[in-house]
Amino acid sequence: MPFDLLIKNANLPDDRIGMDIAVTGGKIVAVESDITGQAGRVIDAGGRLVTPPFIDIHFHMDATLSLGTPRLNQSGTLLEGIQLWGELKPLLDKQAIIERALRYCDLAVAQGLLAVRSHVDVCDDRLVGVEALLEVRDLVRDYLDLQLVAFPQDGFYRSPTAAGNLVRALDMGVEVVGGIPHFERTMEDGRLSVRALCEIAAERGLMVDLHCDETDDPLSRHIETLAFETQRLGLQGRVAGSHLTSMHSMDNYYASKLLALIAEAEIHCVPNPLANIVLQGRHDVYPKRRGMMRVPELMALGVNVAFGQDSCMDPWYSFGSADMLEVAHMAVHTGHMTSRDAVKSCFRAITENPARVFGLGGYGLAPGCNADFVLLEARDTIEAIRLKANRLSVVRRGKVIAETAPRMAMLSLEGRPSTVEPWRYAPVEARSS
């Protein structure tokens, strides 16, 4: 039988080169060299990288593309961002949220980003954001997987109606329990909120994803409580701790204990490099802290680390472009992760690692997996991060849903080539290392 789609001469993230990928009925049916047969469409990868789609495991889609409404964050700080979101919430309109979210999803698809976990604020009693993103989830399901987290932005206990609203949101179909223990009024309230939220998840058979210790205070240790509650309630593998920036400021002795507890509890760790390095360390003079969790150390212990984008043109972060390669690129630099293996691990942190957090079925480049993948204008994963490579073709269930022209500069220099293609500058020696 003819194939629906055949990708020829592709390099894969596991360093195999010259591979073909055959697709039928929205599924990958073969990954091997020199596949023969007719196909409805053939794409010659030409020695470029084909990867499973990118995944953003931490995002705020109810706020995305709202930059400037009702005003700009003048200081650029986390606290002013929270204050600004409080000013914006009463003005939120369901249709406006839907339109912004759909525009963002268009951008995401163009960037090969086909799965997003979005936190949605439940501290607005109208739950307008929840209603809007539930509708968006249905509208985009054919081309993007959207998973929602019930997030009490103003504090599970600190906001008077948050606890009830969170349960309402879960009853409406939100899939993940969220929280923000370090924003409660006291450390004790934060500890109790972690306990309560994990119990809600355990009772309902849901996953947990808490904004946890997003502060420069080394004594903010709610991740320790999260590790304990995960084990007490048997939630191993279903819990994510997002941000964990206080870990950057902890003394090494305590951190050595904490990292082992995280690994033992099988907690997923979600740094957000773009936002974390600009929002943390704001009270420092010099030297300045950068507010990233201890990514290399966590990875060395076998902890599943997955990077999130967090924000895109919203009250907290005025930049962003739905580009997970930009996220990985920043993580490489802030974490001093420039060895060949470390860079490759950062690529996994925007692909296969978040797929595990998400619980995304059918993900990968093997027979039987969904035919979801991206052709990048780069030879391998290291080059993809270096170049923040173009997404030449984005495929969903075997159908090409986005295409970008190759990047090429035309030169007018006597005695020099007439064109420059950045992806061809990859050092040959690096590919075999």
From TrEMBL:
GO biological process: cytosine catabolic process
CDD domains xrefs: Bact_CD
Statement: the UniProt record of this protein carries the keyword Manganese: no
Record carries keyword Coiled coil: no
Keywords: Hydrolase, Metal-binding
Highest rank taxon of the organism: Bacteria
Pfam short name (any one): Amidohydro_3
Molecular-function annotations in GO: cytosine deaminase activity; isoguanine deaminase activity; metal ion binding
Sequence ranges assigned to domain Amidohydrolase in this UniProt record: 41-401
Family annotation (PANTHER family): CYTOSINE DEAMINASE
Name of the molecule in the record: Cytosine deaminase
